Amino acid sequence: MPGGPGLYAWWATPGVLPGVPAAAHPSMSLGLLYVGIAGTSLRQRIVRQHLAANTGSSTFRFTLASHLLAEGGLTPFRKGGKVLLPPAQLAWLRHWQVSYLHVSWVARPDPAEVEAAVIAAMEPPLNGDDNANHPYRQRLRELRAAFRLRADGGGAIGTTP
Hints:
Layout: E1 6-12, E2 31-38, H1 42-50, H2 59-67, E3 77-79, E4 82-84, H3 87-100, E5 101-107, H4 115-122, H5 137-151
Antiparallel strand pairs: 1-2, 1-5, 3-4
């Protein structure tokens, strides 16, 4: 995995996240979930943030945890304004990620120049920004809100707004 900047995409077998529309790509059996950029290092962004950091440092991990709240028995909490998970639950989330997800990347000197256009063209269901017309966007917002609510002591695991 390159140490320089670029774009990356997270993929999964359709249905691995129930309800998430991730149709299989025509050339493979995986559906696109999320697209992001790494301004300095793809390796650091993917490995240190999306596979190891807490949910307050990775929108992608926050989004996955929002979808896996009930399945993982996750108990998010707030600290310093961020929604976080306890260490054992972060380990569970990482195990889930490496068991079910795939990542691809392309090195590019200034990925921010094309990020919005790539998201608009590829329509990954777990991207909220630059994806305003995606039919899953409202459900994505609801799940993220339920995760935040749980961190604030409200809502039972498995409930949705």
